[in-house]
Amino acid sequence: MEIKIYNDSSKYHLGDVLKESLKGFKRSFYLARQLARRDIRAQYRQSVLGVVWAVVPVLMTALVWIFLQASGTIQLSSTGIPYPVFVLMGTTCWSVWTECLSLSIISVNANKSIITKINFDKEALITLGFMKMGFNFLIKLGLLIVFMALYHVVPGWGVFVFFPLLFITMLCCMSVGILLAPIGILYNDMGKAIPLSMQMLMYVSPVVYMSPKSGLMKQLMQYNPFYYMMDDLRNTLTGASVEHVTFWLIFGLMTILLFAFSLIVYRVSMPIITERMSA
User: Fold this and answer.
1) How far apart are CA 78 and CA 66, in angstroms?
2) Residue ranges per structural domain of the chain
């Protein structure tokens, strides 16, 4: 059994902390898998609709906008593909990003009882959240595939680009969520603020409408990373090419650095937070 000695030294070697964090993911993978299996079974066993609840929020949001567009209540520019598929692509990606931002906070808060009683690598909680989010994503992806088949939307070879790009965006959102986790664990406000903020951001991002070609909104979107992310993810699913290559190169590099930094912060802060929760 490995013996760990905790002391009050304030000196940290960032490289060593990052290395230990990555090892923590490996050491705790089995625990995370068991917890994920337990949570997923419990979540859907106690509901009548079961896994349908994974797609209800996405589907309801999409149906509202489909109805508004079909009834003429709102006028949207041409999307190039059937609007139901267009809006479902947007809401699916958006729900995944929202879950990635919240998964670390939710996982830790839901497992406070074992955190204070058992000494284990807390990276297991990040893996746990990612596994649960991934399970829900597969269900949403299945719904999207059904809609694309019904409306005869063929993705082409771009689908092989879609998944790497989507993973980069998920990793970025996870990194931000991991950085916010220490605050969210101590103060519940953060867990409530993330979904609310994402709901507001959705309406200034091209989730349910096409990106404007000109005007003030077009200029504002140049500073919105979700604009580039959403546009190109949709492009890869509809047979179009990736338009913002430079953005993805810079974004990918920044995401890797942000992820490494977030793991260091998480690794250093979790023992302190665990002590506060035990007090």
Assistant:
1) 13
2) 14-278
Please write the tens of the pLDDT for every residue from 147-177: 899 988 888 787 889 999 999 999 999 999 9
Nearest-CA neighbor of 92 among 54, 117, 58? Answer: 58
Residue 111 gets which letter from DSSP? Answer: T
Among 58, 272, 278, 57, smallest CA distance to 181 is for 272
Which residue, among 94, 121, 120, has the nearest Cα to 25 in the 3D structure?
A: 121
In tens, the pLDDT along 49-95 reads 666 777 777 888 888 888 877 777 777 777 778 888 899 999 999 99
80/238 Cα distance (integer angstroms): 9
What is the distance between the alpha carbons of residues 230 and 237, in angstroms, rounded to a whole number? 11
Taking the C-alpha atoms of residue 70 and residue 103, their distance in angstroms, rounded to an integer, is 35
Query: Which own/partner contact pairs does 242-248 have at CB distance under 8 Å and 24+ positions apart?
Result: 242/158, 242/161, 242/165, 248/165, 248/168
Total residues belonging to the chain: 279
Tokens of 218: 């077009």
